[in-house]
Every structure is written in structure tokens, then in C-alpha cells.
Design a protein that fits this description.
Layout: H1 3-9, E1 33-40, E2 49-52, E3 66-69, H2 71-81, H3 83-86, E4 90-97, E5 101-108, H4 116-134, E6 143-146, E7 150-153, E8 158-160, E9 174-176, E10 190-192, E11 199-202, E12 212-216, H5 221-230, H6 232-241, E13 249-254, E14 257-263, E15 273-275, H7 284-299, E16 303-306, H8 311-322, E17 327-330, H9 346-350, E18 354-358, H10 371-386, H11 396-399
Parallel strand pairs: 15-16, 16-17, 17-18
Antiparallel strand pairs: 1-5, 1-12, 2-3, 4-5, 6-7, 6-11, 7-8, 9-10, 13-14, 14-18
Helix pairs in contact: 2-4, 7-8
Length: 403
């Protein structure tokens, strides 16, 4: 939609709701550009593959986390690369097929002659054909799965069990227990729901409606997202191994204020916490001294609390992360149920030494920090440090990562 049409229809659109599926207003999706596209299977069912490997194994080793694709997953990966054959002006730069979703990077050349929506629509149509073939669904037909494992087909016939080659965990509808910006629109682990006695109707469609696109524009952004795609299996393995630290909580209350949280919330119960607040006027030497002092405190068992706003606060946070010390981070961006910690925070979350608190609702738009927001975040950090933490949870002393 161009900007003029957007403004024309905006008064009738109702209240704006956060969504990761909207296109950028005014952008020409047929122009020369690089896109990161993400789409998920309907119901987030893990039809495309199985994650194997050890989250602790080094990259490149046989035990490193990776996805073993199902026959359907192989067809989907091939279909994504076939975009180059169907659309000569489009180049596939990267692909990562995960159990329940796909990430792909496409480069549209100046002479592409097609828009992103057309490419995604054609790709989804090819995937749906492969899906129906492998599940032996009538083309354009439907299938009804019952809790006893029997399937009723669109032509009235019945059979037991899904087609060969589809993983057992994919046979049932699933619920994701989960918890980016796109990095939050991530690899939520899926677990079969209790479906005894229930029925799940499918309509021969593999993918959920719509898709997410991210326009790659900044210098170095393409390589960052290539690395992101490559690292997807490891991040999923980490989350599955430490799921309690990656689940979004919407009910964490501190000093009468409710936050959304990701990470080890029991860090709030530690009795020694210290606010990190550094003036923007600090020199490099003063920042270095502040880093030294705060890291020394953290090594003594103090949990640092920071909104990570000024250069000094960022330096302290970076040093604490590098030294593997406990941190509570106040984020201006809210979370939704699919949110994930940023890439640099994964290891810290998995090890129970990191907590992200978001005081404001989720919003997909990047909102610049105002002076008032900075003052509020610093006030919240002070409240957290002054809150009497010990004993807020009976089990907290046992679960604290840093006694």
C-alpha cells in the first residue's frame, strides 16, 4: 500500500494493534532490495524436521545442533531455491528450514519484474501441493484427524495414521508454550498438546496466513542475518535445554509495578542489587573507572540493574556480560508471547544470570527513547534495587543462580 492510500484508509482502520505481518507503508516491494522472509507452519506444527545435537557442542562438530529435515522439509527447501528458476530476477542468498518455520533471504535485482508478495504466494502454492501429496490429501480437499489416530478424508474414506516420513510429534495439533522485532519472531519450541478425544481439521494448507518480511538496509546487516539464520538450530537447542529462562512472563511485580519478563526472575530476590546509572557527560577515562567499580561489585555477588541507556551504562553491561556476571536489564521494548532475548543475551539467559524486564506494552515500531522515558527507566531501576527481595518466593534461595 502506498502512503497516500494508507492515509486515506487510516481513519477507518480502528485501533492499531501490534503485528509482525504488516508490510512497510510506501515501500515498493518490486524494487531492488534484499528481504529476510519468515513464515511458520499452520499451528506451529513441527512438520519440516527434527532438531538433533547438543547445545553445548562447538560449531562444526558432528554433535552441533542441526535440523534433520523430513521429506516434506526437503521439498520445502528445494521449493525455496526454485524461486530463482521461476523468477530469474530473484536470487536466494540464504535459507534455514526449522521444524516449524522457514527463514529465507531474497535479493531482488533491478530487473526482477515481480514483487515479493507474488514470489511468496507462488512459493506457498508449491509447498501446499507437496504437503498434500505427502499426506495423501486430495488436491484441494481436507482431512479430519481424530484423537484415536484415525483420519477421515474429504472423499469420505478413512485410514489410520499420517503418511510415512512425517515425524510422530507432527501428527497432532500443537500448542506453543512460548515466548522479536523479527529476532523475536523466532523458533518457539512446539510441544504436542493433549488432544485425546478432540478433532483437528486441516484444509491442505501448510503455512499460516501471511508472512513476516524484514528489509535489509544497513551496512553489514546482510551478514548479521546470515549468521542469525545459521545459528537458529543452536538457539533452539539452548531454549529447549533451559526452557524456564526463555518463557515470557506477563505478571512479574516489583515495588507495585508489573513487568513482562524473560530470563531468571529469581535474580530479583537476591538481597544485594546495585543500580547502574552513568551520566552522558562522563569521559572515556571516567567510564573505564565506572566499569571497573561495577564489575568488582558484581564479582562480590551484587546483581547489577541497568536500563543500558548512556555510553557508560552500555560499557558496564558489556563488561558484565563478558565476565559472565548477573544482570537485570530494563528494556524499553515490550514483549509478546513469541518474544526472545536478543542474540547477545542468549548464553546469559541459558545460564540463569540474566533477566530482562519490560515495563511497557509490546510495539513492533522502533520508538525513540525520550528524556521522560529515560528518567522513568532509571527510577524503575532504583525501585528494583530498593525492593526487599529476600523471601519474595519461598523457593527463590534454591533457584538463584548466584548464591
Amino acid at each position: 500500500m502506498d502512503h497516500e492510500s494508507f492515509l486515506k484508509h487510516k481513519p477507518y482502520a480502528g485501533t492499531a494493534k501490534p503485528s509482525m505481518l504488516r508490510r512497510r507503508v510506501g515501500h515498493d516491494y518490486s524494487s531492488r532490495c534484499v528481504y529476510l522472509v519468515t513464515m511458520t507452519t499452520e499451528g506451529r506444527r513441527p512438520l519440516l524436521g527434527t532438531l538433533v545435537g547438543n547445545a553445548e557442542a562447538p560449531d562444526g562438530s558432528p554433535d552441533a545442533p542441526h535440523v534433520v529435515l523430513t521429506p516434506l522439509g526437503e521439498r520445502i527447501r528445494q521449493a525455496w531455491h526454485d524461486n530463482e528458476r521461476h523468477y530469474p530476477g530473484v536470487t536466494v542468498l540464504a535459507t534455514m528450514v526449522m521444524p516449524d518455520h522457514l527463514h529465507g533471504i531474497l535479493f531482488f535485482k533491478e530487473e526482477a519484474g515481480v514483487n515479493l508478495g507474488t514470489v511468496v504466494k507462488g512459493f506457498k502454492a508449491g509447498c501446499n501441493r507437496a504437503y498434500r501429496e505427502l499426506f495423501e490429501l486430495p488436491q484441494g480437499g481436507s482431512i479430519e484427524r481424530r484423537g484415536d489416530g484415525r483420519e477421515k478424508r474429504g472423499d469420505g474414506s478413512e485410514r489410520r495414521g499420517p503418511s510415512q516420513g512425517i515425524p510422530s510429534q507432527a501428527r497432532l495439533p500443537v500448542a506453543f508454550d512460548g515466548i522479536e522485532k523479527l529476532s523475536n519472531y523466532d523458533d518457539t519450541p512446539c510441544h504436542p498438546s493433549n488432544t485425546a478425544g478432540k478433532r483437528d481439521r486441516e484444509h491442505g494448507l501448510l503455512w499460516s496466513p501471511q508472512y513476516n518480511d524484514h528489509i535489509l538496509e544497513g551496512a553489514g546487516e546482510l551478514q548479521r542475518w546470515r549468521d542469525y539464520l545459521k545459528d537458529n538450530p543452536r538457539r533452539l537447542a539452548i531454549r529447549r535445554a533451559h526452557s524456564e529462562y526463555f518463557r515470557v512472563r506477563f505478571d512479574v511485580t516489583v515495588a507495585g509495578r508489573t513487568y513482562t519478563a524473560i530470563g531468571n526472575r529469581f535474580l530479583l530476590d537476591y538481597p544485594r542489587k546495585r543500580q547502574v546509572q552513568c551520566s552522558r557527560s562522563l569521559t572515556e577515562e571516567q567510564i573505564a573507572e565506572e566499569v571497573k567499580k561495577k564489575v568488582a561489585l558484581a564479582r562480590e555477588g551484587v546483581v547489577l540493574v541497568s536500563p543500558d541507556i548512556s555510553d557508560g551504562e552500555k560499557a558496564v553491561m558489556d563488561a558484565a556480560l563478558k565476565a559472565q556476571l548477573p544482570l537485570i536489564f530494563l528494556s524499553p521494548r515490550g514483549f509478546n508471547e513469541y518474544s526472545r532475548p536478543g542474540h547477545r543475551y542468549y548464553e546469559a539467559c541459558a545460564e540463569g544470570r540474566f533477566l530482562i524486564l519490560a515495563p511497557w506494552p509490546h510495539n513492533n515500531r522502533e520508538t525513540p527513547l525520550t528524556r521522560q522515558m529515560c528518567l522513568e527507566l532509571n527510577a524503575m531501576a532504583k525501585e528494583i534495587c530498593e525492593e526487599e527481595g529476600e523471601g519474595r518466593h519461598k523457593e527463590s534461595r534454591a533457584k538463584l543462580a548466584y548464591p
